[in-house]
Amino acid sequence: MKQITLYDTTLRDGNQAEDVNLSLEDKLKVALKLDEFGLHYIEGGWPGASPIDTGFFQEIAAYDLKNSTMVAFGSTHHPGNTARTDKNLKALVASKAKAAAIVGKSWEVHVHEALRVTSERYLEVAADSVAFLKQSVKEVFFDAEHFFDGMADKPDYALAVLGKAHEAGADVLVLCDTNGGALPQDVAMAVKQARKALPGAVLGIHTHNDCGMAIATALAGVEAGCAMVQGTINGVGERTGNADLIALIPVLELKSKGAYRCLPEGRLSMLRAVSNYVAEVANMAPFSRQPFVGRSAFAHKGGVHVSAVNRKSSLYEHIDPASVGNEQRILLTELAGRSNIVSMARRFGFHLDKDEPVVKGLLAELKEKSAMGYDYAAAEASVELLLLRKLGRRGVRDFFKLLQFQVLETKRLAEGVPLSEATVHLEVEGAMEHTAAYGQGPVNALDNALRKALYGFYPQLNEMRLVDFKVRVLTGADQNKGTGSLVRVLIESADQTNKWVTVGVSFNIIEASWQALIDSITYKLYKDENVKRGRALED
Question: How many domains does one find in the chain?
C-alpha cells in the first residue's frame, strides 16, 4: 500500500474562487477542521500579499496542530532581484511556516512573454529561490506552473526547470495543470517522462477542472507515480475550480483495491461533515449532487431502484454511504413504488408488507399530491408527517387546530411601504387563542401571529428559525393561468440541532405558505415530544 500525501490549498487557491471570500477567522476555523480531518499539508495563503494572509500565519502559530503542517505560498524571486533581497521570499521565511511552496514557470513561452527574461536566466531564478528557502525552511515545494503545457511545447525546458529546482533541494516537485486543459493520458505520459528524467525526485500533482477532469487527471498523475496530491475541499478555486479532495480521497482509498492510503485510520467517515463544514464557513450552499457526500449521492427515487436496494444496497450503491459519513435516502415522489413506502416506514419502526392496503392507499395519495405539485423529494419533513399520520404513529397529533386566519395588506401612498397584519384564531390544547401581529410581508405577519398564539403552550418554538423560503410557479399543461397559477412553497427551518424542509401547494401563495408553515411547526413539536418521551423511558 502506497501512502499518498494530501496537500490542501483551499485557503489559498480555493479562496481565489469568484464566490469565496474567507476572513481571517474563517481561515483559522477551516485550518483547524482540516487538521482534525488528518490532511498532511495545509497551504495557508501568501504572506505579504494581504493583511489577512500575513495575519493568518501569525495567528495559526499559537495552535498546536496534531496532523497537519502549515505551508506558506509564494513565487520564485523577481528576475531583477536576487533571492536574498526579494521581498516575497523574505515574507515566506518571516511567516515561520515549517514548509513553503513557490510557484515557478515551466512553460518557456511564459518565461519569455510574462517575465520577459531569457530561458537561461529563469533557470537561475528557480534554483536560487529554492536554495535560499532551504536555508531557513524545513520543507520546500516547487510548483511547476503550466507544466503540462510546457511538456507539450518544449519538454526539454520544462524538465530543465524541474531539474534545477531538484538540484537546489526542493523536497517535492509539483506538476501543475494550471490551465486545466490537459487530458488524463497527457498527464500520465508527462509524469512518466518526469520520473525518467529525475528518478530521485518526489513528484506531486496539482490539477484544475476547466475540462471537468480535475479528478481524472489527478488520479492519472498518482497512478503514473506522483506521491503528493494537491486540491481543495469541494473543488473550489480559480475559474471552474481545483481537484476536489472530497471526491479524490475516497476514490483513492476505496476504489484502488488497497493500493493507496491517504488519511489516518478512521477519518474517512468525517468526509461529509468536513465538506459541509467548509461550505458553511465559506457561506456556500452544499451541492446536493456532489459525489460521495452530496445529499442526493445515495438518494433513490424510482420504485425499481428502491425495491433492489431494499434487498441489497450494493445493487444501486457503489459504496457503503456510512464509510464517507453519508446515508441512504429513500424519496417519495410521483415515481415512487410501494417499495419506497415500505423502506421509509421501516426507518420509523414500521415493518410493512408492500401488499398491505395502507401501503397501496398511501402510494395513491402520494402520487395524487405529487401530481398537484407537492415536492416531497425536497420536503422530507412533510412526507414524514404524511407517512406517520397515515400509519397512526404515536406522537404525531394536532398540536393546534386552525379556526380562522386573516391577512390584511395596506398601502396608502405610491411611495409608501405596505403594512402587513395577520390575525389567527386557534384551538390549542383545548384553549381558544385569538392573536394578531404585524410582519415584514404577509407570510412573516402570519408566522408572527401563529407563534404569538403558541409560545405560551410550546416555549421551545423560540429556538426555531426560518433558514430559507422558496416559491415556484407550477406551469403544467392545464396550469397556464398567469398570476392565478398554482404555486409551491418550500420552507426550510432549523433549531439548535436540526434542519428540516416542508412544503405547501395552492393557487393562493399565503395558503401554500400556511401549509408549509404549520407542517414546519408541527414537525418541530413532534420531534421534541419524541425526545422527551425517549428520556422518560430511559428514566
Answer: 4
**Single-letter residue type at 524:** K
Residue in 495, 411, 484, 438 with CA at minimum distance from that of residue 461: 495
What's the chain's average pLDDT? 90
pLDDT tens-digit map of 270-316: 999 999 999 989 989 889 899 999 988 998 877 677 778 777 888 88
Beta strands 486-494; 465-474: pairing state: antiparallel
CATH number for the domain that contains residue 412: 3.30.160
Residue 30 CB neighbours (<10 A): 24
Nearest of 231, 232, 321, 219 to residue 269 by alpha carbon: 321
Distances (CA, A) of 5 to 2, 366, 452: 10, 49, 56
Instruction: Give the pTM.
Output: 0.76
Judgement on whether residues 12 and 142 belong to the same structural domain of the protein: yes
439 and 515 share a domain? no
The pLDDT score that the predictor gives to residue 537 is 47
Q: Indicate whether 136 and 275 sit together in one domain.
A: yes
Residue 341 contacts residue 359 (beta carbons within 8 Å): yes
Q: Which domain holds residue 442?
A: 400-457
Same-domain pairing of 304 and 227: no
Q: Are 155 and 147 in contact (CB under 8 A)?
A: no
Cα–Cα distance between 379 and 374 in angstroms, integer? 9
What spatial distance separates the first Cα and last Cα of the chain, rounded to whole Å?
A: 49
CB 44 within 8 A of CB 11: yes
Q: Are residues 445 and 478 in the same domain?
A: no
Same structural domain for residues 471 and 436? no
Show the DSSP H helices in 198-269 as ranges.
Answer: 214-224, 245-255
Instruction: Provide Rg for the chain, Cα atoms.
Output: 29
